[in-house]
Design goal:
It is built from 4 helices and 2 strands. It has 104 residues and is mainly α. Strand 1 and strand 2 form a beta hairpin. Helix 2 packs parallel to helix 4. The protein is globular and about 40 Å long. The two termini are 14 Å apart. The relative contact order is 0.20.
Length: 104
């Protein structure tokens, strides 16, 4: 089961890298979050989870990142950007699930 989730995470990461960043969101803050940094942080945590177990501090940060998407997503009014960031959110949620499964 864990291997399947790791494969799915790798696929999501590859799909994300193939998508162009929404140009209108470069330098934009939504709900107090810089959208470029949100993108970068989401991918970085997914990559770290894919590579191995996170530290306790990194797990807390991953949880905060997941909740940040809950505030940001409803405020996005651009269709492409909404799909782009929803994909990132799903990638972060899967990363958290993997991390939770590993911790047990």
């Amino acid at each position: 089961m864990l291997d399947e989730k790791l494969d799915a995470l790798a696929q999501m990461m590859a799909e994300h890298m193939a998508r162009p960043f929404p140009p209108r969101f470069r330098g934009l803050d939504v709900e107090g979050r810089d959208m470029v940094m949100l993108d970068s942080d989401a991918y970085a945590y997914a990559a770290r989870v894919h590579e191995g177990l996170l530290s306790e501090q990194a797990r807390v940060s991953l949880t905060r990142l997941t909740s940040a998407f809950g505030k940001v997503l409803p405020a996005i009014d651009d269709e492409y950007a909404a799909k782009y960031y929803t994909h990132l959110h799903n990638m972060v949620v899967l990363s958290a699930e993997i991390e939770s499964q590993r911790k047990k």
